[in-house]
Design goal:
The chain is α/β, with parallel strands linked by helices. The chain has two domains: 7-248, Aspartate Aminotransferase, domain 2, CATH 3.40.640; 251-382, Aspartate Aminotransferase, domain 1. It is built from 13 helices and twelve strands. The protein has helices at residues 7-13, 57-69, 81-89, 106-116, 159-169, 181-184, 219-232, 238-248, 251-270, 289-295, 310-319, 349-355, 371-382; strands at 74-78, 97-101, 122-126, 141-147, 172-176, 194-198, 212-216, 275-279, 302-307, 324-325, 335-337, 361-365. The strands form two sheets. A seven-stranded mixed sheet has the order 1-7-6-5-4-2-3, with helices on both faces. The longest helix has 20 residues, at 251-270. The radius of gyration is 21 Å and the shape is globular. The mean pLDDT is 95.
């Protein structure tokens, strides 16, 4: 009988297996099946694999691990996080109405505003962390798309409450879970229908490859994802799949260290007179703190903070030495990002200002370095 594994063990092995189930000569590192196609033993007979756009053993192993971590029935790996979102958006038709959170990653906004609207979708942005979305639902509404925490303002949406509303109206709840990873939050268990990840971030964890995931808990949704993915062909390559398998093995220990460091840095920034405000859900005064405490197993390793002015923000960006001024997040290296120019340049200025994405706002993805070194670097950068 197969054993039930804890989350750190699942990161290493994926699904529990019977003893002797290994077909790869005892290899501890899952093999890279670097092949485009597979030979058929004879006419009408398949090994189970035909062509790597349809399925590949290395990618399938990765998908099994991610599905197990997210408590889903199926997971699908794609070339980037944006490719994963694009796949899901192919579920809809012209005239469909989709409610989206109003503080999303800028790439998602760019996709919705320029591709989804071109395809005839009606995208409506709503503050899902504060507003009652039920009043925005109409007969043509097909889905609600949220991030929680949001990027970069760290707003928190109650996933369970949102699920109750979407189920009452028979529409999909799609949650981008990139900021917390399946180690800290499992939206499917809270009632979401689809979970999306930029696997480039915490799942990979080493800033060395791009990837994206769609995870579902319903077989009919899995069939829809599979059909679109094999038709459009944005599936993850075997070598990149192997890099993700390797990265996920240390997901738990990385996340533990990263969020411990983030909590220390958040407190340091909060006490710094040159910082006007710190956006971090681990603070008890954060408006989403209690919700996050109920629906997640930690507060993550992302935070944003507002400097006194644009000039002081630019000075910090230009002066950090250990910390890198770079776009992206979730790797072992601490990264400092300037959202208004890097992650959200295509978001209209009035929306950025309304959301708090000012020219003095910085976003910090905290890594696994020694906390004393990170604080020392910020101290000299602030000087």
């Amino acid at each position: 009988m197969a054993m039930s594994y804890g989350i750190n063990t699942t990161c290493i092995y994926g699904e529990a297996k019977e003893q002797g189930d290994d077909k790869h000569y005892g290899a501890l590192s899952y093999p890279i099946y670097q092949t485009a196609t597979f030979a058929h033993p004879q006419v009408g007979v398949s090994s189970g694999y035909d062509y790597s756009r349809l399925s590949n053993p290395t990618r399938n192993q990765l998908e099994k691990v991610v599905a197990a971590l997210e408590k889903g029935t199926d997971a699908f790996a794609f070339s980037t996080g944006m490719a994963a979102i694009t796949i899901v958006m192919e579920f809809f038709s012209p005239g469909d109405h989709i409610i989206a959170g109003d503080d999303l990653y800028g790439g998602s906004v760019r996709l919705f505003d320029n591709i989804s609207r071109k395809n005839g979708y009606d995208i409506e942005y709503v503050d899902t962390s504060r507003e009652d979305i039920e009043k925005y639902i109409r007969p043509e509404t097909k889905a609600v798309f949220i991030e929680t925490p949001t990027n970069p303002m760290m707003n928190i949406t109650d996933i369970r409450k949102m699920s109750e509303i979407t189920k009452r109206h028979g529409i999909l709840l799609i949650v981008d879970n990139t900021f917390l990873s399946p180690y800290l939050q499992n939206p499917l268990e809270l009632g979401a229908d689809i979970v999306i990840h930029s696997g480039t971030k915490y799942l990979s964890g080493h800033n060395d490859t791009l990837s994206g995931f769609v995870v579902v808990k319903d077989k009919s949704l899995a069939e829809r994802v599979l059909y679109v993915s094999k038709t459009t062909g944005a599936n993850l390559a075997p070598f990149d799949s192997w890099l993700l398998l390797r990265g996920i093995k240390t997901l738990g220990i990385r996340m533990d260290r990263q969020q411990t460091n983030a909590a220390r840095l958040a407190q340091w920034l909060k006490a710094n007179p040159k910082v006007k405000k710190v956006y971090y859900p681990g603070f008890e005064e954060h408006p989403g703190h209690d919700i996050m405490k109920r629906q997640a197993r930690g507060y993550g390793a992302m935070l944003s903070f507002e400097m006194e002015s644009k000039e002081s923000a630019l000075r910090v960006l230009n002066n950090v030495k250990l910390i890198s001024f770079a776009e992206s997040l979730g790797g072992v290296e601490t990264l400092l990002t300037y959202p208004t120019l890097q992650t959200h340049p295509d978001v209209p200025v009035e929306i950025k200002e309304r959301n708090g994405i000012t020219e003095s706002l910085l976003r910090l993805s905290v890594g696994i370095e020694d906390i004393e070194d990170l604080i020392a670097d910020l101290e000299q950068a602030f000087a």
